[in-house]
Automatic annotation (TrEMBL), chains A, B, C, D:
Catalytic activity: L-glutamine + H2O = L-glutamate + NH4(+)
Organism: Desertihabitans brevis
Protein name, UniProt field: Glutaminase
HAMAP family: Glutaminase
GO biological process, one term: glutamate biosynthetic process
Protein origin, superkingdom: Bacteria
Binding residues annotated for substrate, in chain numbering: 64, 114, 160, 167, 191, 243, 261
GO molecular function, one term: glutaminase activity
Record's signal peptide: none
Length: 437, 437, 437, 437
């Protein structure tokens, strides 16, 4: 069978191709000379598969799409407190190049506007690193997100530097507020190099997939940034990534995203997928016209909106039975699906509501396929409370979803590979017990 | 076993209780006279269980928490286009009572600031409804969200009306821009009645759970608003619900939420839970101090952040085997967990990568516990493509997760209750085939 | 001889008549139905002569031109402190209908924008006056400025009230800040009546002339407001009268002015003239197109710019002679022109630099035509110091420009009608002295 | 006699000396180290007399007081159109260091805020001048205003440059809008040099007096800038010179003024006087605390407010008589005072209202002390119209206030030195006439 995913992507591109509205960025000759007809889209899964259609191997400059990644690096390198002290997280409701500093402190409102991104660049790498070191750190970091060595387009970079007056203004303003403490010219130059990194749409999809995959590049397996950083970055992308169209995007597309002036656009859906598109003509917000259309279609077709209410699942308690009778009776609670707080709450509720004369209780995870942290803790508390109620608790966990379970404080649990093991053990004990008696 | 959820809630309340920072709203005597020590929290699950601790049955006025619900009603009653033409969805980065109209059109930036909420109130109910009818519609709608008949606190309402100068200013401004076309005094009065509805923390949790449950009240089973409305409302709560603290909330708590000046605070996590807290002292943003603390704790403890990357799941393909041999051989692909785009992509990839000499292919959903819309479509496309490749495709779907499957256009599928049914059928056919030969 | 002033006015009107650019105000039918071709201009001198050309007797509604006059009445009725506590004097750089309140206090930035004018209306008359009393007070006051009984155009007023949403918004906002303490609906209605007063261009010129004439109507002789009020009003007109075109006006025209949406425009040049024009088509700032042209022309042709440096005057000391000799010698310092600080400084300097052996000194004001307050004080100080130096000082003041001169503290002066009187007196005394000796 | 002006100044200083409120500017060490007790005030008359009291010979850096003078130089060097295309004239209602650019064009709102002053610096000198040339031009120009060679305080300049981040930000922003077309670093450096020029309070008074004296330095007699430039500069000082306190200043003091962060403050009253004060402690607007007090006192004591309505003058027509009778009768209209439009209007009115059987009319200017341009033109028109009415017109103008009078188009006038000359001439002609008869 041939996969339908490439077909889907190709169909989607064909649908948006006729739309030639929007205009190229033209503030530097290199962008103004781009081929406006370029069109590409790629999906990268969290296990590293990449699907592409169209111009996914054509290089473009990353531009503002570097912002969330550099923010991730700064958070990883300096810690949350140091970064939040310098750059806020509030949506500004303003265009990308608005200066938008908080009146009293001069702190940029968020890392997605230029003021915030310039400040963020200065926070990449360990404190005290010089300008060259910072650029190196950012280039290394972006490369790690992409899973291959990236390089700067020196021609674009030089041209951007010649037109960097507004960013230089922002840099000096940040310096005047003490938000920047370095030479603003050098920081702006470094930021400009960051924006001039060349990537393909395929790279961008993998970079987004690294965010979707908790900070681990799904191809190289490298942990690029820690998990809490990813959550922060995705949250900021969700509220501030699309500038003054943030609300439209959040309601209609609902995928944490970031666009670049060269026509790139990425989206990352936590745990699921990284998406990238490339089409250079921009709308009045500075976002790729056809990229926005494609994301709208992807979101609708694939149910990728973060506020999409998931479909009603089958009950987490797949079966609740008593096997055997008398002293050999074993109560088996078979769970299924992905276990989180909501699922465990139902387990707890069912267990709490049940009168359990049986000594042995088996919690069967053999048809469970994931257990998150809170579910693990609640499950162990169920074990502990059942122990305290006098039960002999078994955890059927053939896939080791709950490694080394420790219910703590009076709890006790026996881990087995199947319900049959529980029954066998129970029979054995009943026999012993009978022999003794 | 006793459930640990009430214990957890009680512990959480005990932790935040000593915090007496913040101040009561004092613009009307009724709010200034509230008991500042009130403290309560409730969880409502999407199947209608409500856990509460503290003052969850004390009545408070709903105030701004009515905004997302009234917005939902307006969207349901008038349709998206009519409402979006009058009220935007962009975060304003401003305080709740900022006027924040779009300069050219006078359209309020979003429905969570007062200007947007006043406009939204005017859009509740069918067009042409008078002021009294609108209030009735809103009261009915809020009651449906809560699952019981709510009523207005006439004393608070009268007092609010005496201090409604700013809202009246906003109303007249909206009227001057033609955003409101009705008498602004009447609209503001209606809006004030809406804000004066009495609710308990328990009610609020159920209202939030109705949003989390795709618009269906989990207790009464009533569909209050359609699903697309819920997605819109949650998206807007996520970006604009906490006023000028929206970014902090989005990064740190990550639960679509709304606060009210009487000390209420709700959060709704799609598909999972509705949460409500009550504590009247407010921070400088107008949000309940202890409510904000509680939500931070709930989010961290229970992994409720919308950008929380879910834990790595076991592979969607639980087993991929060939049963039998020769003409009787059946290829069985056993899936597990919740199926969405990402899961199906892996199924597609595995199927596409496999050389399948067997005529009969069984897609086994018996350990699957949910199938979303895109997964269903992709699954059917897999069926169709396998049919076109010459396979005889069976869907093992004992729980009827894919009702009436129609792969369309050349596809064909046999639905059975177990893999054994497939094998039996295959054996039968092989026998027939042998007999014929 | 026929005066050339009417010819000049007629020529000016003829020059601007072909300009049909701009547009009628159209927010109410009455203004939209105005005859756009109307054109008139009038000059009123500070002694009450009125020159007019064109439609100077056609009635128009006064609209915003009422603002400086109502401000004058409020200052007169309540005092500076009470008014300044409620309305600022800073130019806002904003359009007439911008809300422009000071962020913390809600105080409107100045009395020429609507927010300030509405507040000002509420401050007209003694405190505690009801709405009807305030309107009566304002109507009486405007009538006193015009020198005839004015009346409200009830049709326009009713129509304005139907479209007063923005002003009502402002009123409620002011009420919410406690800037207004009355019912804002009533204040806005009163303000609307104030704006609906009917005037002719001739009236407007006389109203402006009353300001130019230190607050005394030059026709009726009635003191409408005290002098310090006039200075305040003219200052505010100079900086805030032309809204967001204030700077252009201040540099190019330089006459304190105020425009109205019905096409009126007034200017008042302190001590010189009141000017009014009428032409209903407005520019984008809301100022009469042809009115602005006419004022530009008047200012340039007649040197009316307040920053126009006056022509170099002949020296204030017309002659400085010694008449007679010996004991009969009298030193005569003959002054000329208008005496102010700068003139007196030169007198002082000359007197201080002169060695004066003569006992008798005559300060001759017979060719002086005005003496301001500081000049009077300095002149008396010269007298005092000369007395203390042993001189016998005479003031020749046939026109009684310095009534009842009191040099104080050791000074002494003899007032006479001519230098001859001094000489005669001196001769007489010398004779007496000789007789005694 | 000793002049009372120095006494007045000394008294004024003594009155404000105890006020030690306010704070030194502290953004550079040099300003923070200033002696806060310094206090000085100087008056410079338009004929070059300078009165000083206190620290009038202590050097301070000119700082923002250079702004109006550099603006004057730019207007003189480049013309109004070129300068107005780059810098507006609207008050911004904002603090001195607000960026305040017009949104669309990036044009600074006025030349008194830093953005406008930086732009203005770049417009000094002929186009194409390099940075050094511009600084030289400004230094020459400031020196010409002061009447002595000024120099830069290199220490202050270097220190300012180290803290010029905000100005550099503004410079780059202006460059990004194309308002600046030069290297912004160089322009800001030049501007900083301009602000670091050392002056004394005495210098500042003379610089102000040069503005008051129509652009001619009253000491050196050098015309520094043309008259129309002075009017523009004074107008902009009047509306924008005191930043966000512009309205307070305009109403309470009413003297076009400019303050500097080193504690200097100047005011120029057209045709009258230049004033400067020096006291380094600043209020929250950045204006010298004691300087503001002193100006308030000077304005009140000396009637220097530009909106001060001048005192009622004696009638411009001092006498209107007929001398002689019959054929020898001569109508003599004796004028007095300073003649402007308002005065001439009355002359015209009187002449127009008078039935004049006499052939000979004498307009007697012997007690007039100034005639402005419009008065001259009106006077000549009176002459022309009287000629056309058949009169034989004489102008008695002993001081040559109307040189080379040309009434044009049918008018004719005989200039004489005294009324006696007219009478003599008339008698002579009557005699001739009689002889003929």
């Amino acid at each position: 069978m041939r996969s339908m995913v490439p077909d889907y992507l190709a169909d989607a591109l064909a649908d948006v191709e006729p739309d030639t509205s929007g205009a190229l960025a033209d503030y530097i000759p290199e962008l103004a000379a781009a081929d406006p007809g370029r069109l590409g889209a790629a999906f990268a899964t969290v296990d590293g598969e990449v699907y592409g259609a169209g111009d996914v191997d054509v290089e473009l400059t990353i531009q503002s799409i570097s912002k969330p990644f550099a923010y991730a690096l700064a958070l990883a390198d300096r810690g949350f407190d140091a970064v939040l002290a310098k750059v806020g997280v509030e949506p500004s409701g303003e265009a990308f190049n608005e200066i938008s500093l908080e009146p009293a402190t001069g702190r940029p409102r968020n890392p997605m506007i230029n003021a915030g991104a310039i400040t963020t660049h200065a926070l990449a790498g360990v404190a005290g690193l010089g300008p060259a070191g910072r650029v190196e750190r950012v280039l290394d970091g972006l490369s790690a997100f992409a899973g291959r060595r990236l390089r700067v387009d020196e021609g674009v970079c030089a041209s951007e530097l010649e037109h960097a007056h507004r960013n230089l203004a922002i840099g000096h303003l940040l310096r005047s507020h003490g938000v920047l403490t370095e030479d603003p010219d050098a920081v702006v130059e470094g930021y400009t190099r960051q924006c001039s990194v060349l990537v393909t749409t395929r790279d961008l999809a993998l970079m987004a997939a690294t965010l979707a995959n908790r900070g681990v590049n799904p191809r190289t397996g490298e942990r690029v940034v820690p998990e809490p950083v990813v959550r922060q970055v995705l949250s900021v992308m969700a509220t501030c990534g699309m500038y003054d169209a943030a609300g439209d995007w959040a309601t209609q597309v609902g995928i944490p995203a970031k666009s670049g002036v060269a026509g790139g656009l990425i989206g990352a859906l936590p745990g699921q997928i990284g998406i990238a598109t490339f089409s250079p003509r921009l709308d009045q917000h500075g976002n790729s016209v056809r990229g926005v259309s494609l994301f709208g279609r992807f979101s609708a077709d694939m149910g990728l909106h973060v506020m999409e209410v998931p479909p009603p699942a089958l009950g987490v308690v797949r079966a609740h039975t008593v096997v055997g009778s008398g002293a050999e009776a074993v109560r088996v609670v078979q769970l299924q699906g992905g276990l989180g707080f909501a699922a465990l709450e139902r387990v707890v509720r069912e267990v709490a509501a049940t009168d359990m004369p049986e000594t042995t209780v088996a919690l069967d995870l053999s048809t469970v396929y994931s257990v998150d942290d809170v579910a693990r803790r609640m499950l162990l508390e169920v074990v502990r409370r059942l122990t305290l109620d006098g039960h002999d608790v078994h955890l059927v966990d053939p896939e080791v979803l709950v490694p080394a379970p420790d219910p703590g404080d009076g709890g006790r649990v026996t881990v087995v590979g199947s319900v049959d093991d529980v029954l066998a053990a129970r029979r054995h004990r009943a026999a012993e017990s009978g022999a003794v008696r």
